[in-house]
Design brief:
The chain contains 14 helices and 18 strands. The protein binds flavin-adenine dinucleotide (FAD). Flavin-adenine dinucleotide binds next to strand 3, helix 3, strand 10 and helix 10.
């Protein structure tokens, strides 16, 4: 047992025997057992803790809000540094071009968005978990959001980060003026083509250093948009409409999400914001931007006509539009409820050795229909309850299977592996959103050759020769 009070007796520490440690033990997919939690209040405390742990080879895990659900913020042992108290917007600089927000890593994304909007600007990367997750977590997972179909992942908006390394030194990593950051969806390990070390840190899942300050580029005020929930008679209809009509013909899209029959039937019991037609078996959730009222009515008319042509007026008449801030927020919260519901169901089976088994694979959009066919035929074979939903416009659905016991869990996990192999074969990847963490290290060799993985391990060793930081994240400890 380590005595972290030795580092600094005024630390805000929660030790193993304190009940409050329970809050920091798990991330809804994995349970850990940290020896203590340090709720760091400033950069000096982080530096002191890192220097001590590095010297004594004590594992350190960094946690923000623990919504990444891969075990990456869960500590099996050692010290967990929580960033929750390192929050707040330091500055919004509107004189620079583009304008910038400088934030502490513990700032909740929704709070940042509100602060920026109150000054007339727009920060577009808002994960569905925006009310909980923090910017430090977002940078470390290269987060995307509902609107990333149009606006891309956080990497694109990061202008500068300050990192604290394990020897306690600070490094400022800044973008050059002529750099155009990659929009790549892949989140399996380090960004292999990095030129600027900023890109190595983005998506590094807490394995290289502590990100203590982030400077983000902002956009001008958000354009107007409306949201629509479009019903379809089957998953196949919804998917074909998405590829052949929405992606091919609608130009001002901000968001395209999918809610398949499994997700929709589970959600029919939740808050009647929308009266689903009896024949509706799947939905698309889209947002379209517009500049004038005239343009809005043209877009709505076009949408109505194309849904009628693809299904029938029964479905077109049942499209639900949200054009007021309140209704749009209702849609968003309803959509956010899908993963929450899936996680809650999954947890009910933990005690029997089962749980939710999720897939995070992605494919290029021209391979989407083929991949979804494969997913549904594989899911049927498992005979387990399943659903697919979310960011289909980027070729990246969330897929969930519900396993009641260890045997079913194994069946579900094998099926996810088969899907990942197929996704890679089709030119996609194994992780499009949540990352690898501790739970999915077995997926890395599906996507990367051994030499690429060894290259990543070499980069890791340059920053953390003792492998104390985020131990177990990205790389299976057995291969190190
Ligand atoms: C309901 C729900 C919806 C979601 N929707 C989306 C979505 O739309 N898009 C999306 O991308 N993700 C989504 N996620 C996943 C998750 O919210 C993101 O991965 C998010 O970026 C994690 O943020 P967090 O604050 O919870 O970080 P955590 O989960 O606590 O940590 C994530 C990683 O960041 C590291 N880390 C955190 N802070 C620092 C720091 N200061 N320095 C170094 N490393 C650090 C941790 O060690 C860990 O490896 C969703 C999750 C849920 C539960």
């Amino acid at each position: 047992m380590y005595d972290f009070n030795k580092i600094n007796s005024s630390f805000d520490l929660i030790d193993k025997n304190d009940d409050r440690i329970e809050t920091y033990r798990e991330d809804t997919m994995m349970r850990g057992d940290p020896d203590a939690v340090l709720r760091a209040r400033d950069e000096n405390e982080v530096k002191e803790a890192l220097i001590y742990c590095n010297k004594n080879k004590i594992p350190v895990t960094i946690s923000a809000s623990q919504t990444s659900m891969t075990g990456s913020s869960v500590a099996n042992n050692g010290l967990l540094i929580s960033i929750e108290k390192l929050d707040g917007v330091i500055d919004i600089n509107t004189k620079e071009s583009p304008p910038k927000a400088v934030v502490k890593p513990g700032t909740v994304v929704a709070d940042l968005q509100s602060a920026v909007a109150s000054q007339g600007y727009f920060y577009p990367v808002a994960p569905t978990s925006r009310d909980e997750c923090r910017i430090g977590g977002n940078v470390s997972t290269n987060a995307t959001g509902e609107d990333s179909f149009k606006y891309g992942p956080i990497r694109k908006y990061i202008n500068q980060i300050k990192v604290i390394l394990l020897d306690g030194s600070e490094k400022i990593l800044k973008r050059k003026l002529d750099e155009s950051p990659s929009l790549e969806l892949n989140k399996a390990g380090y960004f292999a083509d990095w030129k600027n070390p900023i890109d190595l840190f983005v998506g590094s899942e807490g394995t290289l250093g502590f990100i203590s300050e982030i400077t983000l580029n902002l956009l001008p005020k958000s354009p107007e948009f409306f949201s629509a929930l479009i019903p379809f008679p089957s998953n196949k209809n919804a998917l074909e409409f998405l590829v052949k009509t929405v992606l091919a013909k609608i130009k001002n899209l901000r968001t395209i999400e999918y809610i398949d029959s499994g997700a929709l039937s589970a959600m029919k019991t939740y808050k009647a914001i929308y009266k689903f037609p009896d024949k509706a078996k799947a939905l698309l959730y889209i947002k379209e931007e517009f500049n004038t009222e005239k343009e809005l009515s043209q877009l709505l008319e076009k949408l109505y006509k194309s849904v009628t042509a693809s299904t029938s007026s029964y479905f077109a008449d049942s499209i639900v539009i949200a054009d007021s801030p309140k209704k749009k927020e209702d849609f968003r919260l309803w959509r956010h409820r899908i993963p929450e519901m899936a996680n809650e169901h999954g947890r009910e089976y933990w005690k029997n050795g089962g749980g939710k088994v999720g897939g995070d694979w992605w494919v290029p959009i021209n391979k989407l229909l083929k991949m979804m066919d494969f997913f549904y035929s594989e899911a049927e074979k498992t005979k387990l309850p399943y659903m697919a939903y979310a960011h289909l416009g980027r070729g990246h659905p969330h897929t969930n299977l519900l396993a009641c016991n260890p045997k079913e869990k194994e069946i579900a996990q094998e099926m996810v592996i088969r899907c990942c192999k197929m996704a890679v074969k089709l030119g996609g990847g194994v992780a499009g959103e949540h990352g690898i963490g501790k739970l999915h290290t077995d997926l890395m060799p599906i996507q990367h050759t051994n030499s690429t993985i060894q290259k990543m391990i070499k980069w890791k060793k340059e920053y953390d020769p003792n492998f104390i930081l985020g131990r177990g994240n990205l790389f299976n400890p057995k291969i190190i």
